[in-house]
Every structure is written in structure tokens, then in C-alpha cells.
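Annotated sample (chain length 726).
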Amino acid sequence: MPAGFGRWAGMAVISAALLTLDVVLPPLSGQSSDLDELQLSGSEYLNPSGLGTSAISAFNSAGYVGGYSLRFSGTGASLGQDAWLASTDTGLSLQAGLTTSQFQTAAAVAGYAAGYRSSSVGFLSANGFAAGTSVTFNHTDLATTGPGQAVWVANAATGQTTRVGLSGAGFETPTGFVMSLLNGITVQGEAWGTSKIYDGSGNNDGQAAWVATSEGVTRRVGLWGDGYLQAGSFAESSSITRVTAGGYAGGTSARYGGTVPTGQDAWVQNIRSPGSSAVAIGLGLTDTSVTEFSRAVSGTSTLYRFNGLSVMNESSGNYIGGYTSRFSGASSRGQAAWIHTIGGSAIRVGFFSNDASNPIYRYTFHTGFQLSEVLGISSNGTGIGYSQRYSPVGTALGRATFIVNVPTNTTVQAGLTTGIFNSSINAQENTPLLVSNSGWVVGTAVRYNGSTANGKAAWVASAATGVTFQIGLADATAANSENSVPSKLTESGYIAGSTEGPISGSISGKAAWIARASDHTTTRVGLFGAANTLYQSQSGFQLSTIQFLTESGYAAGYSARFIQNDNSAYNALSATSGSAGVTSWIYHIPTGTFSPISLSIRVSDSYSNTQILALYETGLALGTYELFNSSGALVGDRAFAWLPTVGYYDLGTNIGATLGIEGWASLNRAEYADIYGRIVGFGTRLTNSNLGDSVFVLETIPEPNAALLGLIGAGWCALARRRRAA
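Output written by the structure step:
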């Protein structure tokens, strides 16, 4: 992390990089605007000096915001925090969370003041529901066990909160201690997580998985009861991996044969079908005698099998990837990979032949060991993964990448496998990283110098044919030791990545690049001057990285700046001497337009620090920068926006008198924008220097003239007028 980022390193920045904004028009100079504060009001949210703190913990593109405000006693003691939900349309903040006596201390105990409570918003759904947690304090052994936790769902429009999760007998100790964990929320507002299971003596005997509707109805999911309950105890254990937008939950449950553990089953369950139950998925499910996927266990007639869940496609959930342990008698023999189709069955995927006549493509160790893993699945059924390679005498020879079309059950190999990507002993190592619905796969291949691994190259492959091309920054020589890794892949075929290590000659560090899947060309992006200039240290170090990439072809990132005449190499992982901050930038792939963003520079040493926090499909970028006065003193952080047709500008400066009229001293960080163009971030109030920043929502109020109406559309103008009239 470059020096200068450390001041913001503690922020929880929730990326909104791939949201599509229907209208984006942050206020420009001379335009009217509306500036509201999002917080909970009341004396309990201010300390004795009149200072308070609110922060954002969740946001969605529909304009709902989740956050919290700290609470204080009259003497300034911490009373925890209350969660709130707000709408960017109304600017109103509504309290959420659980606040009855169970969730608040009645007296000072275990380091908590009397009246202490704590609630947090964890997730927001696209349709305006939230899920969060509240701390529990009602158990009698609080002083020794610490607080417990409950989960809730809430309507963001009303703040109405309902407790969810599993509770009652089996899910709390005799003293009243409970522990439920929140894992996520679907686009429809269904929360999901786990609740701990306890026996009659208060011992933790595992956990149960659950889902809850947006209205607060909780349903236990997974496999439990006969075959999944340890005899003579309450021991059961289910985990929930994901609930997809299509309404399918997937997870794993522990298996038992009487008192003996017999492995684990993966499962899938339709949570939107009231009468549905979990279905075990994987390989070896019907084994009644010992096979490749099962083994005998002493003390029970139940066969041992172990199926794990690796990946679920988020959008549809029609395909689930996992693995099954392999055995030879009582000995482990690795694992097989599989993909399950909802409504169908699992097919084994990967390479697992043992062709002794082909020493280069052999996937079984001489002991019978095999290892394959599914790493990703697209919503249209393209699975990616790898299988371990071995020589006939048992030497490990790296990994082979497979791409499987699940609907047709056809597999192709991809990756770089010739020349410097095939070692002197025929080792190859290709690992797929990302797959798109549009038919592209990206990954890495190890480069060899003789038999020695020497860095990695990036590649892009056709999912249909496996034909692979090298991308990234590298020349095709075995002596290179740089590592090129693709990190982002869009459906439109844009790829973002980085190359670390030796970049060119004596220059080292980290370089950023963009590649096109269609023609497998690579373009280096970022700021990278000649030796002993602003973007290269005197020792020859450079650093550029890409943070965001949109389907429309906008990439955003930053490049490190360096104080010259400093001989120390800059370390990308920690702040060291020689750093002069960072310059952010936007690169538009279709036009090749590169736009550096540096809003304020300290003249004495050229220090400047500008950070992009969000990037949208229209090209709108939001962020924060450090403002210096003419004497070089730091004034503070300031919020900015960038538009392709306008460039960058300070949000607070551009709204002019509105800033002071609305009671704000400055806007410090712009972090989110909703589909209506309203911006949410942090700022400082005139009457409250605050223990921390206050949360603002900023909206442009269009003037009713023909030119502006043509620019942003009558529908959005009507929306803004309705808000002003409210």
C-alpha cells in the first residue's frame, strides 16, 4: 500500500464499480444542489462536547444506505452504537436493530457501561431490505463468556426490524447465551447464516444453517437428523456457502454413523419452495460397498464419504461445483472434481486418465493419487479448474487447466504449454482464475528456466476451444522472472492485470495493464516516467495498479509518486521514505484516452494524494484527495468527482454557497452514487468538528431550462422537484 493511502487504510470501502447509472450528473459550478446529513438525531448520539460520529456500513444502487451512530452517556462513556437505514431520496435516517432489554446492559458489567447496546448493518438488498446483527447481554454468565449475538432483517423504507436465525431449545445455553452469525443477503432480501447448537450443559455441539425471508420468517436448511446427528448427543453441523439470486442455498453437513463421524455431504436446497428439503449432491452418494469415493469406518456399518462445495454461480445457481475425496481402502487418494446441475446430477470433471503411453499428460500418481478442483462456473455452465499432472515414475509435473461445457459435458484444455512454459522435465503449471459468460477464460502459466520455475505469465483462452494466447507485460525469454496476473475480466472482453518484479531492464516494481480478449493485445497503463522522475524512484522502482474496470471500458487506478534524490527503493507493501503520494487516473479503453487526476500538490516536495473510491459505467469516478494551501500546509481531505466530458472537480467547491447554507464546512470523501446520480460520502459539519466525519447525501437540483432538460431528462427533473416539494 503506497504511503499516503495509510490515512484512509482503515475505511471499509464497499466497491460499486460495476453498477450502471441511468443518470449521472454531480453538481457543476452554478447549479443548485441539495445537501443532507444521514445520521440518528438526539442527545445520546453526542458526547458532552456536542460531538458525534456516524459511518456507512452498506450501500446499494437504489439509494438505500446503512450505517451506525455512536452513543454516549451524559458523562461521555461509550454506550455502543445504533444502526440506521436511510434513503438518499428523502434524506431521512431510521433506527434499525434490536433494542429491547435482552440487547442492552441493565447495569455496568464486564467492561460495558449501564445502557450499552450495539447493532450493525451488514448487508443491503437491491429491493430495499437490510440484514444486520445486535449484541446480546441477557445471559447470566456474561462476565465470563462475553456478549452473544442475534441476527435481524429490516425494511429500509420503514426501519421495522425482525429478529431472525434459530433460537430456543438447542440454540441457547442454560444461561441464555446465543450466537447467530450473518453470512449474506440475496437480491430479494433473504438473509442467510448459521446458529450455534448447545447441549443441556451449555457445550457447543456444532451449528445449524438457516435462511430468513425479508419479512423475518426463518427456515432451517441443510441436512440434519438421521445420518447427520451423532448418536447420544446434540452434535450436528451444517454450513451454508451461498444463497444465489435464483433462490438456491448450498452448503455442507457433517455425517455420522451412530457415534462415529463418517465424513460430510454437500447439499443444495430451493429456499423459495416451502415444501422443499435439502438434496445431497456430489459423487459416491449411492455407494453401498467400498468404492473409489467411499471407505469402511471402524465401529459402524455406514460408509465414510466426503463431499465439499467449492463454487456456486451467484446469478442463477443452476450450477454448483465441488469435490469428493478419493480412497484406496483406508488410504486417501486425493480428490475428484464435479459440477452439479440443479434438477439433474453431478458429473465428474477435470482430467483423471492414466495414459501410460503419454508421459506429458498423465493425471494419476503412481500410488493412484489424483487431484482436481473446480475454481469457477459461469451462469451459462462453463466450468474452469485444474488437475494435477504426474510423470510415470511419480514426479509432480504441475497443473493442467480444464474448461468444461457442462450442458454438453465436453472438456478442453487451456493454458500455455510449449517453449518456456514446459520445463526440461515436462512440468507445466496453468491455473485458470476467471471465466465469463461471453466465452473467455483468463489465468496464469508458470515460466521455466530449465527445470526451475521462474515467474508467471498471464493468458486468455477461448472457453469453446481452449485456444490460448499470452497477455500481460513480458518478453518470451526464460531468464525473465516477473509475475503477470490478470485480476479482472468483463463480459465485454476487457481484462485488467499487473506485472510485478523486473519490468524492463533495471526497472522493477508493479506495472498495470489492460488486455482485450478479442485480439489478445496488451496496453500498459498508468504513469511511469524515465529514471529519476516523478513516477520512478532513483533506484528504478515504479508502482501502478488498477482498482476498477467497467463493462463499458473505463479503468481506474493509481500510480505512486516519488520524492527525487532519495536512494531508497519504494516498497509496495509498506510506506517507506521516498514516497510522494499517489496520482489516480482513468483510462478509457475504446478510445485510448488517459486522464491523470491530481487535484492538489504540495509545492515543496511535489507530494500529492488522490484516491478513486468508486467507478461507474458512465465513467463517473468518485473519490478523495488531500488539499494543501499555498504555504504547503495540509487543509484536510476533500471529495471530488470526475466525468469524461468535464474532468475532475472538487464537489464542495462546486456547490458554492450551498455548502455553508446547509451547515457543512467541507465534503471530504465521495464514496457512492445511486442510479439517480445522488452521491453519498463523508464530510465535516460547521457546528460539529465531530469525533469522525458526518455522512452526507448530495443531489443536483436541475434548473427547468431547455438545455438542462435535454441533458439529463425530464423524468429525473420531475424526481428532483418531487423531493424539494416533500
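Annotation: The CA atoms of residues 366 and 394 lie 5 Å apart.
Annotation: Residues 1-25, 566-577, 701-726 have pLDDT under 50 and may be disordered.
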